[in-house]
Amino acid sequence: MPAQAGIFADDLARCMVRTTTEADRHAMLRWLISSISVHPVLKSMITVSAEQSKAANQDAALLMERLLTVSCKAEAQQALRSEGGDVLGYSFGQLGQIAGRELSNDPAVAQKMQEYMQVVDAKKIQEALAPEEKR
Fold first, then answer.
1. How far apart are alpha carbons 131 and 123 in whole angstroms?
2. Rg, the chain, Cα only
3. Is there a contact between 125 and 37 (Cβ–Cβ < 8 Å)?
4. Are 8 and 83 in contact (CB under 8 A)?
5. How confident is the model at residue 8 (pLDDT cuts 50, 70, 90)?
6. How far apart are CA 101 and CA 104, in angstroms?
7. Model confidence over 88-110: pLDDT tens digits?
8. CA-to-CA separations, 90 to 1, 7, 71, 128, in angstroms, rounded
9. What is the pTM of this model?
10. Cα–Cα distance for residue pair 59/101, rounded to 1 Å
């Protein structure tokens, strides 16, 4: 992915965000979880069946096809012509960030993400980050 996208990559990303539905973004999240579930660190924590993985891949492929050939076809063509092939990764990355934000905005997910704070040693952190004169 380019460090900084050009105007046409941004246009494509905005089109993708604008034309996807909540169901589309949920499909992206299912594909992402299915994909990362094979990582050695996560493999024992996430179980995705072969059928679920196949369905997630199919849904992600259909979404990508629709975005690039129908919903955002003109933006994709312009971005590819003007800025090259990296624009697709950038634009889908932006869409993934939006989907991820929706995930963390879910109250149950947000609460679960805060559970680690119950075991954090706040005093230890405060002492380590305090200015020298206050230690």
1. 14
2. 20
3. no
4. yes
5. very high
6. 5
7. 999 999 998 998 888 888 999 99
8. 5, 12, 17, 38
9. 0.80
10. 20
